[in-house]
């Protein structure tokens, strides 16, 4: 059942609901974005209801629970305007109605939901599958553009610390894809892109796969064009109350994936980390508080 059908059912059956369920229905009808993005507990708090009341409303509609209703509204919000301009117009309109405090709470509440989803059984299995492929690869090429670049960079940076052969496909003047010339069987292309998907990332994935490499994708949908090319797919959610998609879950997934790969390397990772720390110390890279002395006048 989709949002439009649920909204119609709530509107048509509103007068026949008990008073408490009417309050819950009014909340759902008046706050569709909150229904999609906030936790059940937070919604109940804002509506002045109990979570059990929201659950009873969902069951009245023939759903198993309120989470099913939330998912229907979340599916709808993913179909928001594709342009940043269109989503920004929504944001500004909503901000006029709710103010700063509500927007701040909504932003971090949404991120909390997204991050918790990464610990679910399906996500854990996807992360483990990706870690197995990466740990067994000869080389890993890391590729991400625009908002996805920091996540690709972070993965390459952590891999270098643990002594793994990692290539960041990045270069001035658009030469980043040149790093893929030597990619082949036994290699992994770790590619990151979320909607709106970058054309060059998909071209890089197609090229790498044609050379015999395996694609490990970090993306936002199992139906994304990058996922269709991949041997393993790690999924992150990106929708927020803001006009810009969030990359926070992507960072979290990268850090978890790097930890899983390092754990599979065992003593090899420990030896490499010791060498990395020795090199960093040789260049006095980080400020050591013990080396600081109080200034004298």
From TrEMBL:
Keywords attached to this entry: DNA-binding, Transcription, Transcription regulation
CDD domains: SIS_RpiR
Every HTH rpiR-type domain range: 4-80
A Gene Ontology BP annotation from the UniProt entry: carbohydrate derivative metabolic process
GO molecular function: carbohydrate derivative binding; DNA binding; DNA-binding transcription factor activity
PROSITE patterns xrefs: HTH_RPIR, SIS
Top-level taxon in the UniProt lineage: Bacteria
Gene3D superfamilies tied to this protein: Glucose-6-phosphate isomerase like protein, domain 1 (3.40.50.10490), Winged helix-like DNA-binding domain superfamily/Winged helix DNA-binding domain (1.10.10.10)
Stored InterPro entries: Homeodomain-like_sf, HTH_RpiR, RpiR-like, RpiR-like_SIS, SIS_dom, SIS_dom_sf, WH-like_DNA-bd_sf
UniProt domain SIS: residue ranges: 130-267
PANTHER family membership: GLUCOKINASE, RPIR-FAMILY TRANSCRIPTIONAL REGULATOR
Protein name according to UniProt: MurR/RpiR family transcriptional regulator
């Amino acid at each position: 059942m989709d949002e439009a059908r649920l909204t119609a059912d709530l509107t048509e059956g509103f007068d026949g609901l008990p008073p408490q369920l009417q309050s819950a229905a009014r909340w759902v009808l008046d706050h569709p974005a909150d229904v999609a993005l906030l936790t059940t507990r937070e919604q109940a708090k804002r509506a002045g209801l109990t979570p059990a009341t929201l659950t009873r409303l969902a069951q009245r509609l023939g759903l198993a629970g309120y989470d099913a209703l939330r998912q229907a509204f979340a599916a709808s919000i993913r179909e928001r305007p594709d342009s940043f301009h269109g989503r920004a117009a929504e944001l500004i309109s909503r901000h006029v109605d709710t103010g700063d405090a509500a927007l701040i709470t909504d932003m971090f509440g949404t991120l909390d939901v997204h991050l918790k989803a990464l610990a679910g059984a399906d996500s854990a299995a996807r992360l483990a599958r990706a870690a197995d492929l990466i740990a067994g690869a000869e080389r890993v090429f890391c590729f991400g553009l625009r908002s996805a670049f920091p996540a690709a960079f972070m993965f390459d940076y952590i891999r270098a610390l643990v002594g793994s052969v990692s290539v960041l496909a990045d270069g001035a003047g658009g030469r980043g894809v040149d790093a893929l010339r030597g990619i082949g069987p036994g290699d992994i292309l770790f590619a990151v892109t979320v909607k709106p998907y970058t054309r060059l990332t998909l071209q890089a994935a197609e090229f790498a796969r044609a050379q015999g490499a395996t694609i490990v994708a970090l993306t936002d949908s199992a139906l994304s064009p990058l996922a269709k090319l991949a041997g393993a797919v790690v999924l992150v959610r990106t929708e927020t109350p803001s006009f810009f998609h969030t990359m926070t879950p992507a960072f979290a997934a990268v850090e978890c994936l790097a930890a899983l790969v390092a754990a599979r390397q065992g003593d090899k990772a420990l030896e490499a980390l010791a060498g990395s720390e020795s090199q960093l110390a040789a260049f006095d890279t980080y400020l050591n508080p013990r080396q600081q002395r109080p200034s004298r006048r």
